[in-house]
Amino acid sequence: xxxxxxxxxxxxxxxxxxxxxxxxxxxxxxxxxxLKDYDTLLTFAKEVSYIQLQDGRTPLTNDWExxxxxxxxxxxxxxxxxxxxxxxxxxxxxxxxxxxFALHSAPRSADGILYHMxxxxxxxxxxxxxxxxxxxxxxxxxEALKQVQGYWDALYDPEIKMLNWIWDDEKKEYxxxxxxxxxxxxxxxxxxxxxxxxxxxMKKEKDETIEKAKIVIDSILKNIDGDGVIHDTMDDPxxxxxxxxISMVAGAIYRAAAAGYLTEYVETAEKLRKSLHDKVxxxxxxxxxxxxxxxxxxxxxSNGQSFFxxxxxxxxxxxxxxxNRSDAWYNSIFRGEQGKRSDYIDVIRA
Length: 350
Hints:
It is a single chain. The protein is mainly alpha-helical. It has a single domain (6-338), classed as Glycosyltransferase, CATH 1.50.10. 52% of the residues lie in helices and 5% in strands. Strands 1-4-5 form a three-stranded antiparallel sheet, with helices on one face. A two-stranded antiparallel sheet has the order 2-3. A hairpin with a 4-residue loop joins β2 and β3. It is globular.
């Protein structure tokens, strides 16, 4: 079974119309994975495999995108599943090359923490989502936890219990201290994905990662108003409205609750989800996010569409799965799907 409702159809259909940057293409792939729309996922996976760079990164298509290190890792989970389902040689090789890049050649600090850019020794809060969940899906649990701790040590401000945006590891100072809601949303969801994806025998590490996620979730929730609205810089009401983080934090709560964590937050997630449903226009666009083309105005975006769909998938999985199955979603996606095939397989092998 998969989430297949009229609003999911409309939002997914609208997503396909929006021009996407590399990380947004990765997010769209993850949304398709979580929706279990494997036929469409495989078309995305085949395309990003064709445009893979020599060093293993994909899907980077312009000079700015080619500066990024962790952004392309955000398609790793989806690429892994596509390789498993299809048996397609090109997709399998693309996944293996991307993983090899992440493990061995990606620019990183002396402590082994991956930088966000290949031309600047910087840690970005976005990388909580882009990088560690990929390592978890690939079975490199220790590496995932090392990355989480490295980013946390660099970016977390314990005095205000919030994550800063960008740290320069060479200058040992913050390049940007803004508390961007969308980027903090990345951290909330990334931390939950890591915690849920770790095996049951790593309970201590799961619990510690959830505690970090809880701090981040709380920092977002306290800046959402009664109408389900948050600003781009979440503690600056003079910044534009950008509700991307609403679906990200709601999805994180549902994922955690399905694993038996943060169940006391579900009522809040339900309210946030309802507020987002009210912001989907007749065309299926989630209106009110940091909008295209440059995230400098309130409008629509690929990111807003993808994370809405991930929220819906998380809600569905939470509703369907009994609470306290510590790795319910990963069992379903990565182990429960073994041996299944997609109808698209005959097309790509033709």
